[in-house]
Write a structure and sequence with these properties.
Blueprint (H helix, E strand, L loop, with lengths): L1 H16 L3 H9 L18 E7 L5 H8 L7 E4 L7 H4 L16 E2 L16 E2 L21 H9 L7 H11 E3 L16 E5 L5 H12 L15 E4 L1 E2 L1 E2 L2 E2 L2 H5 L7 E4 L3 E7 L5 E8 L2 E13 L2 H11 L2 E2 L1 H7 L5 E2 L10 E3 L3 E4 L13 H10 L10 E7 L11 E6 L11 H5 L3 H7 L7 E9 L7 E3 L10 E3 L6 H17 L3 H4 L4 E2 L15 H10 L1 E3 L31 E3 L14 H22 L1
Parallel strand pairs: 1-2, 1-14, 2-11, 5-6, 14-26, 15-16
Antiparallel strand pairs: 3-4, 6-8, 7-19, 9-10, 12-13, 13-14, 17-25, 18-21, 18-24, 19-20, 20-21, 22-23
Helix pairs in contact: 3-17, 6-17, 14-16
Protein name: Glucose dehydrogenase [FAD, quinone]-like
Cofactor: FAD
InterPro entries: FAD/NAD-bd_sf, GMC_OxRdtase, GMC_OxRdtase_N, GMC_OxRtase_C
């Protein structure tokens, strides 16, 4: 109890200090508090702009930045959340952000088949509500996906999205700061998003790589370069140990033609009788406003909220709009094609050396001074993830990996169930059975993550009230192959922990049985399937609900230039346009979409002028 009270006190202290003017001044001096350099407006300064961008995440922030490079264009960026704070910038405290109002707090609907060990049988689906969007609360992992992912997009009829054509946008977005990797063909050192190795990691990260090598896997120094397949240290979107969010990367600009308005919730897109988008309706401080766009409205509110806004604006499935009583503007498959990288929470290993992240070890003022003044030490770690592996199971259908193994030098027990359990929605029953008995012990977790799901979810609205949460149907394991692939990933991981590299830490699998799965033999395929259905892990990589595709694709919502079919002067630039989910962690790919989208918008209007 004393340790828990000390942990609570430390977190409260950090939050309270983050509101202290003296403390903020001190942090500015040492370069940590850079988000406060973003110039924001209380309200728009004009009634009409050339462009209105809705959402400031990895899609919208690049668009607002690049469009405002044209001095003659007036750009308005509207964000439903508030500016990020110091709390968001400390990597070790990443998971705690899910318990704050920086998270929309979405949860998947119960389907009675999955998320069976979660509170109310519903998995959480955290989404960022802040300047910077989900890049202010995610685990900072920077992966681009596989080259073949984007070639597949192009093969579906999306011209210009081949890997060789979009590589320049990956490069344009990044400021690469890993001196061990010098490869100008794949990387750029002068972009916006800082990318580096973690400033601190446990010895288990190296042991994980050594275990991979022992099992015959390739060790890749740069999974974002020539070869993705294999084991490597994770690359992070951090700036010398502090979070580098989309807002910090793209919105620290002071331009008279760019207005950034936080805490402004867009309710719908305004569309005239000619089916042209001419502005948006939004709410701020309890009042509703309209603001107009003479050229385009760009939706970058994310996979969930972009779909919601389109449907609220009359762009969506005809039958669903009729049910809601929303006048039809365009019958379109908005909300369909929802995809996610699903992993598994229940694969953890006990080690007999004090080498993992336990928050009780970090309640030490010296560690905070080490971090705040030098950005070093464990607070620079993204709450446990340290190494990553892209591998193939027997179900792989092409040259791409079908499973990602994410090594995490922490577990649900790291904070004694105070934040992690609640943030991920794991039920008290599950925690008490398989984690609580191990509190105080050192555990390492591995998430085997499905890379190419066959199952598809859907987003619907509960009503035409824009303040009602949408209905999120994950349908995660509608295709049984998805469950089979994750089970194979679990078996690959178990082999890794039987290697000499990890046995020297006394690695032993946590064999406490998951409630509801007691009837199965521990370690059998049936047991693991039961476990995955009980406590799946959301990677929070939702995408696909405003699918990009050619005109003859009946499921496409936007064309290959991200223009909404059937409505002029309206585009979508975020993860919702992805026809298929790419490998790895998708934030880097969303930055790419943002950069490419901005170029396409520029080309349209510079040609017209």
């Amino acid at each position: 109890m004393r340790e828990i009270l000390r942990l609570i006190f430390s977190v409260i202290l950090i939050i309270n200090l983050s509101e202290s003017a003296t403390f903020l001044d001190l942090l500015r001096q040492y370069g940590l508090d850079q988000s406060y350099q973003i110039a924001t407006r209380t309200l728009p300064t004009k009634s009409e702009y050339d462009f209105i961008v809705v959402g400031s995440g990895p899609g919208g922030a690049p668009v607002a930045n690049r469009l405002s490079e044209i001095g003659a264009w007036k750009v308005l960026l509207l964000e439903a959340g508030k500016p990020e704070g110091i709390f968001n910038q400390i990597p070790l405290l990443t998971e705690n952000a899910q318990m704050t109002n920086y998270n929309w707090g979405y949860r998947v609907e119960s389907d009675g088949k999955s998320c069976l060990g979660m509170k109310d049988l519903r998995c959480t689906w955290p989404r960022g509500k802040s300047l910077g969007g989900s890049s202010t609360i995610n685990n900072l992992i920077h992966t681009r996906g596989n080259k073949l992912d984007f070639d597949e997009w192009a093969n579906l009829g999306n011209y210009g999205w081949e890997y060789e054509k979009i590589l320049k946008y990956f490069k344009k977005s990044e400021r690469f700061r890993i001196p061990e990797i010098r490869d100008s063909f794949y990387h750029n050192t002068e972009g916006n998003v800082d990318v580096e190795y973690s400033q601190w990691r446990t010895p288990l990260a190296t042991a994980f790589l050594d275990a991979g090598k022992e099992c015959g896997y390739n060790i890749t120094q740069d999974y974002n370069g020539a070869e993705q397949m294999g084991f490597g240290y994770i690359q992070l979107a951090t700036d010398k140990g502090a979070r580098c969010s989309a807002s910090k990367a793209y919105l620290r600009v002071k331009r008279p033609n760019l207005d950034i308005v936080p805490s402004a919730r867009v309710l719908r897109v305004l569309i005239n009788s000619r089916k042209e988008a001419y502005g948006v309706e939004y709410e701020k401080n309890g009042k509703k406003y309209e603001v107009h766009a003479s050229k385009e409205v760009i939706l970058s509110a994310g996979t969930i909220d972009t779909a919601k806004l389109l449907i609220l604006s009359g762009i969506g499935p005809k039958d669903h709009l009729n049910e809601l009583g929303i006048p039809l503007v365009k019958d379109a498959k908005v909300g369909y094609n929802l995809q996610e990288h699903i992993a598994f929470w229940g694969l953890s290993f006990i080690v007999d050396l004090p080498v993992t992240i336990q928050f009780k070890r970090f309640i030490n003022p010296k560690l905070y001074s080490e971090y705040f003044f030098r950005r070093e030490g464990p607070l620079a770690s993204p709450a446990g993830p340290e190494a990553i592996a892209f591998v193939q199971t027997k179900y792989a259908q092409d040259a791409r990996p079908d499973i990602e193994l994410l090594q995490i030098s922490a577990a649900m027990t790291s904070d004694k169930g105070l934040f992690l359990r609640k943030g991920y929605g794991v039920s008290e029953r599950i925690y008490n059975a398989i984690y609580k008995p191990l509190e105080g012990k050192d555990l390492v977790t591995v998430w085997p993550s499905l890379q190419h799901p066959k199952s598809r979810g859907r987003i619907l609205l509960r009503s035409k009230n824009p303040y009602d949460e949408p209905i999120l149907k994950g349908n995660f394991f509608d295709d049984p192959l998805d469950l089979d692939v994750i089970v194979e990933g679990i078996k690959h991981t178990v082999k890794l922990f039987n290697t000499k590299a990890l046995k020297k830490y006394g690695a032993k699998i946590n064999s406490l049985k998951i409630p509801g799965c007691e009837q199965y033999e521990f370690g059998s395929d049936d047991y693991w399937k039961c476990g995955v259905l009980s406590i799946p892990a959301m990677e929070n990589h939702e995408c696909g609900t405003a699918k990009m595709g050619p005109k003859d694709d009946p499921d496409a919502v936007v064309d290959p230039e991200l223009r909404v079919y059937g409505v002029n002067r309206l585009r979508v630039v975020d993860a919702s346009v992805m026809p298929l989910i790419p490998d790895g962690h998708i934030t880097a790919s969303v930055y790419m979409v943002g950069e490419k989208g901005a170029d396409m918008i520029k080309n349209t209007w510079q040609t017209k002028s």
